[in-house]
Amino acid sequence: MPRCWIWMLLALVATAGANDFVGSTTCASCHAEVYQAWRGSHHDLAMQHADAASVLGDFDDADFTYGGTTTTFFRRDGGHFVRTDGPDGKLTEYPVAYTFGVSPLQQYLIPFPDGRLQALSIAWDSRPAADGGQRWFHLYPDEIVDHRDELHWTGPQQNWNFMCASCHSTNLDKGFDADTGTFETTWSEVNVGCEACHGPGSEHLHWATLDPGRRAESEHKGFAGFQLDPVTAWPIDQDTGSAKPQPGGGGNQVEVCADCHSRRAEIAPGHERSTRLFDHFAPALLTEDLYHADGQIDDEVFEWGSFVQSRMHEAGVVCSNCHEPHSLELRAPGDAVCAQCHLPQRFATPTHHHHEQEGDGARCVSCHMPEKTYMVVDPRHDHSLRIPRPDQSVAFGTPNACSNCHDDRSSAWAVEHFAEWYPDPKPVRQTWTEAFAHARAGNPAAEQPLAAIVNDTAVPAIVRATALSELTPFLSAASGNVLPSALNDPNPLLRLAGLRALSGFAPAQRHALAAHLLEDPFLAVRAEAGRALAASPKEGLTDSEREHLERAIADHVATLEHHADRAFAHVGRAALYATGLGTMQQAEDAYRQALERDPDFVPAYANLADLLRRTGRDSQALALLESGLARRPEAAALHHSMGLLQVGRGDMTAALAALERAASLAPESARFAYVHAIALNSTGDRMRALQTLRDAAEWHPFDRDILLALVTLHVEANETDRAREHLSRLLEVWPDDAQARQLARSLGRL
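and the corresponding structure tokens:
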């Protein structure tokens, strides 16, 4: 290293605080090659100050019309501006402060006086014109999102400070002031710089000034425990045509990438300073709202949740085996990146892929990493690196790569071709698909298969944890024994899922099963333990046990306070107060604070209305629900709450109207349909009640309450044959249910 750089680094170390951020340009002094690779990458351009060089969109007085509103993009005095509908629906001029992203689309961030940056929902398609780009488009083209919609660009769902900032800038401090309701968000670098992945660099600069002998003593070269996996080239087995990676290289690269390349909930700031994913995030599982039953991507979930399902992850492959981590380009173009581990002469041939050699169907990713398009123009690959299984599509309705391309052909057609091409296929890796599909349909037959998946340590941890989540509604004495092992599993995903599965247990039982997790090494698990065990009976605890509980509850509260700018955090606080940690007044205050943060947040209306009703303030609950419905008229949960309130008030006409509306808005909710039917029956309208239940049973053929009500109402109507018909179905689905067996005895079926 040139002597001049030594002195410059020493000066930087002298002025920097302990383990401080020093900026990417500082890194360039010693790491010029990787710095140049990073320059111009999607990380480098993740967010930029809006100027003539960074703005890609057409601001030459361009117009774009959506939902009857014409938005105009223009320049003035060297700045970029947009005239569009504001929070009141009126056309207003706004300056553009930052660009957000670069390809295949670019969004624009608008500053507000309270420190918010809001992401405009009209984006610029930055693809070449030949590919359909170079145009303005709306991110919700099939909807009409106006200022009254929760997805409007001025609302909380499009708020940069919470939704986007921590992964598009480096060393971000959200800076929300709960007292004033304002943001003062700061960062070390506006984009994703070197220290976003490697951690703060001041100690590394100090390490660089040491003599070689002392440098060798530092295991991590001045970084805080970052152990990024080296890029490894594994020999290819000539018999199988594939490499045999060696897992357990000791690095933590996949978790470092997962900080941003995963669907997860942030629970604490400062993820750049740590390599421990679960100290800053609670990753999402393969739930129905995010993934298909076989684990394929559905909603916008990014890469980690898919990749950790894969055989490659299991074998020891890491992100940088395929992606150059600084330029973010593939290690080799196209299929050549796969050829690092898979012999082309075996796999890149028609005998393997059965497509024209130069066509898209011959590309490895076409079959093994199918795409789904998000944000209208952004296709993303599924990183579970799976073998296509059209047979599972036929059985369970999951997507498959064949039908993705051949959209004019059925999955059954693909199954026939697969049988011809691969008469002896490998066993399916996604052995959990059937159990997940049954669980999502409400079929209790899923219970034992799910329990087996939870206990199978050969299955990916994210799948086992998801299986436990899916199992929770069906837990019984037959499957409840999976909980103790899950709550003691080495993987924090299992421990988190185990804590969430305790919801149906009495507080004392929860504490007996999970008290040890109050001292878990990971914040995500400790905080969840604090929430799950908050209602533990204090009188039976030792001083030490009480202290551990209080600390974990404090951890949970801290994760909520980290998001004091969001309504859900205040609802979470209210739930804690309602467990006995506070007063009903504190819970009520928290719900009202939630509505201050987001006047469209349905759970706050529903929960606060329930609290008001339980404390004898029906008129206040009524007014609250009316105000909520004025803002969210299509919110089924609010109509349901209104119906329950009106039942308590004795106004059955209003109650039935509200309950029927809730059930029609959310036919996927078995509970709403059941309650509506019971309310109908209570007014003497048994015929409509039975029809409502029969219709609901079509939607929810495994729902115990609906089937039980069908039997009971037919018994009350002396329609014994119809009662026995539904009883047969009830016993088929729920053979061990005590009420079902009692009815069977009374009807002579047992």
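(Above: one complete record from the training split.) Residues 47-191 form one domain.
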